[in-house]
Amino acid sequence: MMVDVLLIVVVLVAVSVSLFVGYLVGRTLTTKAKELETLARVEEAREESVKQSRSTLTGKFIEQLAPFLRTSDMTRPRCDSSGLR
Question: pTM for this structure?
Fold first, then answer.
């Protein structure tokens, strides 16, 4: 009878330890996966931010430069039946 109780206790302890270790491994893997996903999102957001910033700066530069590039011919396009002259 004593051997049966001892065997049951050992099996229960082994199952409990296995469940606990499985929980820890699963939590660690999930944390690492979320961390990698977050890093990928941050990198994507940075790239988008840089692209948008470059676009904005280019637009502002063109706005500042445009008055110096205009000529009287550019302000009103001439059209006739054959298209642009």
Answer: 0.50
